[in-house]
Amino acid sequence: MTQRSASREAATAAIDPLPARLLKRTALVVLGPVYFGFIAFVPLLCARRRGFAGWYWRLVKRACSWLLWLLSIRADMSAADRQALGDDTDSLIVINHRSHLDGFVLMDVVPDQKWFTFAAKKELFEAPFLRTGFNGAGLVEIDRKSGKLALETLSAAVRTMPARRSVVLFPEGTRARTDTLGPFKAGAVLVARETGRAIRPIVIRDSDQLLPRGKFVPRSGTIRVDVLPPFVCDPTVSVDEDLDRLRAAMLAVFDTP
After folding, report:
1. Structural domain harbouring 179
2. Over the range 80-116, which residues count as b (16 or more CB within 10 Å of their CB) and which as e?
3. Torsion of CA 52, 55, 61, 62, to 10 degrees
4. Are strands 221-227 and 198-205 parallel, antiparallel or unpaired?
5. CA-CA distances (angstroms) from residue 188 to 35, 105, 125, 138, 147?
6. pLDDT at 3 over 90
7. Number of helices and strands (H, E) in the chain?
8. What is the pLDDT of residues 12-53, one digit of tens each?
C-alpha cells in the first residue's frame, strides 16, 4: 500500500460506530431543517440590531460544527496551527478546494477571534432573502462578468476590513478535478499586492474522499487542515512568479502523507 493510499484509508475510517452514525443522521433529517431554517431567518429579524454581526458569526460557526458532528466528520488541525490562525491579522486566506465540505470545515476550525468572509457573485444578492443573510454575514458582492471590476471591488472591500478579518479566496476557482492542486488564478496575489496584505495559505486534504464530486451524502471520516506561514508577495517579481511560489508552497504540504 502506498503512503497516499494509506492516508486516504485513514481519512475514510468512520469515527463513530454504525448505530451512532445512523442516530446522528436521523436527527439531522428530522431536526436539521428547523435548526438551520432558524439560522437562515435570523438576519431578517435581527440584522439591524447592535452587535448582530459578531453574534451571528458565532452562531453560523456553531451550526457548521454541529453539521459536521451530525455527519460524523472530524476536522483535524493542530493546536499550533489553530493558535497561528487565531493570532492572524492583515491577511487574505487562500485555501485549495476539494469538495462542498470545505467551507463548513473552515468555519469549524477557525478560532472565534479570527473572522473571515467569502466573496459571492452578484446574482446571489438579487434575491431579498439571500441578500439580507449575506449582508448580515459580511459577504463581499462580486460582479464576475468583469474581472477588472471584480478585482477593484474585492480590493476596496479588503481595505476597509478590520485587521483580524480576512476574505477567503479559492485560487483554483472551483473544486479540483485531479488528485493534486489545480492551476491557480492570479486574483489572490493581485488583491494582496493592491492592499498590502499578506496571504495566509491553508491546505485542506481528504474532503473529496468523504464527499466526491457528484455525490450528495458524505461518508464519515477525518479531514485534515494545515495552516502555512504567511506568504508575502514580492513586488520585484512578476505576478506569475509569486503565483508559482504560492502554489509550490501549498503543494509541498498537500503532497505530504
Report:
1. 3-254
2. ebbebbeebebbbbbbbbbbebbbbbbbbbbeeebbb
3. -130
4. antiparallel
5. 35, 21, 22, 19, 13
6. no
7. 10, 7
8. 899 999 999 999 999 999 998 888 888 877 777 776 777 777
Instruction: Locate 126 and state its grid cell.
Output: 438579487
Which of 216, 219, 247, 220 minimizes the C-alpha distance to 231?
247
d(Cα 247, Cα 181) in Å, to the nearest integer? Answer: 8
Return the CA Rg of the chain.
19
Count of other CB atoms within 10 angstroms of residue 59: 15
CATH of the domain at 89: 3.40.1130
**Residue 128 pLDDT grade (very low, low, confident, very high; cuts 50, 70, 90):** low
Average pLDDT of the chain, as a whole number: 87
Q: Give me the sheet containing 140-142, strands edge to edge.
A: 73-76, 221-227, 198-205, 91-95, 165-169, 115-121, 140-142
- The residues with which 222 forms a beta bridge, in sequence order, are 74
- End-to-end CA gap in the chain: 12
Q: Which residues contact 222 (CB under 8 A, 6 or more apart)?
A: 10, 11, 13, 15, 73, 74, 75, 76, 206
Angle between helices 18-46 and 128-137 (to 10 degrees): 100
C-alpha cell at 121: 457573485
Residue whose grid cell is 505530504: 256
Q: Which of 45-59, 78-92, 136-150, 191-205 has the lowest mean pLDDT?
A: 136-150
Q: Each residue of 215-232: pLDDT tens digit?
A: 889 999 999 999 999 999
How many domains is the chain built from? 1
